[in-house]
Amino acid sequence: MDAILDTNVVRQLVALGDDTGDPEFFTTLVDEFVDQGRGWIEGAQTALGAGEFGEARNCAHGLKGSAATIGAVRTSLLARDLEDAARAEDLARAQAAHAALVVAFDETARALRSFGGIAVVD
Q1: Does 120 reside within a domain?
Q2: Segment 45-99, tens digit of pLDDT
Q3: How many domains does the chain fold into?
Q4: What is the pTM of this model?
Q5: Is residue 1 part of a domain?
């Protein structure tokens, strides 16, 4: 199984907040990632339920890029799997990828919050 986080990327993001004098930078970044990511995950689930593979692919694509930017390696890879399955219009594979993505995303959110010393509020 792939690592949950690329800690080098996460450390760079934490340092960026330190460098700019914004102690809330990383916390805000994580909160926005989690909120937006949940929206994409829910959007993909709704789209798959309606047979809208293009919309599911778009949601997965957005999450894939956002996750890569914040260092959420496993989430990014699983979002890619969902994107590929949606592109192929393979519902069974897309649903399996989505289920794995939900678990990984929750693990990622906890890991990012733990890394930054952020209180978990769900």
Answers
A1: no
A2: 999 999 999 999 999 999 999 999 999 999 999 999 999 999 999 999 999 999 9
A3: 1
A4: 0.90
A5: no
